[in-house]
Amino acid sequence: MKGSSSVLFAFFDFRRRASRNGCMSMSSPKPVAQPRAAERLQRRLSQHIGALSTEAPTLDIRLTNNRSTMLSVRREPGRYRLRLHHMFVAASPQVVAALGRYVIHPEAEASATLDAFIAERSAQLQPARDATRRVIRVIERPSGQHHDLRAIFDELNVGYFGGTIDAKITWGRRKRGDEELRPHKTLTMGSYSVEDRLIRIHPTLDRPDVPRYYVAWIVYHEMLHQKHGIPELGGRRCYHPPSFLAEERLFDEYELAHRWERQHQHRLLMY
């Protein structure tokens, strides 16, 4: 669409800014200095756009931490200019494909996929509430039908953390017996609540075809969140500081887990 632009998904009434290491401060939004991340996302997105378009448009991507506008597209002759929240760096292939379709021409299905992805990831970015305002009873259900989260947690705690991680762990809410499986655009495989010291793992992983090392990788990642916390560097909050990212790679099956995820993502999204 020549000379037109569209702005989507205004969810929040406050904004943050991020530096190149993912640290955030409460101020006016600026592009995130993540050239490598932007380049990787640009390559992924270009593949989808190239398959859908008879032209070869130039694609310009700028990553931001603007929590007022998560995605904007400016369409110019032979060029698409995108400003994307940095959450899109970790988007699944399905979300990137939907983004490619939306960039070329907004469509309902692509918009719905992007909307669901942004809504899910946005919940992880909301500031923690004051723990004194609420009392929560957490019922742990670590024993699954195929994987025991407590056993996995204990092994990782001894093997990687010297027994220093103090957290509860549980499977997330399971489907009722009368609920049918259906494909999802995106799923959050694990989360860590600082307030509750609670690791929650998505029950789609409690299946016989999901290897134990992959479940352990997800648990390990969430345990790292307790170890590293959310440090402030230069007045910015860092959810994945360099030390976190470096320690991620110390997981013995790091490459194996990532490879398995890429090969079986479509199965994980069926829940």
Give a structural overview.
This protein has 7 helices and 11 strands. The chain is an alpha+beta fold. It has 2 domains: 4-125, no CATH class; 139-268, Zincin-like. A 4-stranded mixed β-sheet has the order 1-5-6-4, covered by helices on one side. A 4-stranded antiparallel β-sheet has the order 2-3-11-10, with no helix packed on it. It has a 3-stranded mixed β-sheet with strand order 7-9-8, with helices on one face. Helix 1 (35-52) packs across helix 2, helix 2 packs across helix 3 and helix 5 (212-228) packs antiparallel against helix 6. It is globular.
Q: Under CATH, the topology of the largest domain is which? A: Zincin-like
- Gyration radius, in Å: 20 Å
Cα shape: globular
Largest sheet features: 4 strands, mixed
Secondary-structure element order, as H and E?
EEEHEEEHHHEEEHEEHH
Taking pLDDT < 50 over at least 5 consecutive residues as the criterion, the unreliable ranges are 1-33, 128-137
Question: CATH homologous superfamily of the largest domain, by name?
Answer: Metalloproteases ("zincins"), catalytic domain
| N/C terminus separation | 37 Å
In CATH terms, what is the architecture of the largest domain? 2-Layer Sandwich
Q: Number of helical runs?
A: 7
Strand content: 15-25%
Q: What is the structural class?
A: alpha+beta
Helix content: 25-40%
CATH class of the largest domain: Alpha Beta
**Widest β-sheet, arrangement of strands:** 1-5-6-4
Number of strands: 11
Overall pLDDT: 75
Overall number of domains = 2
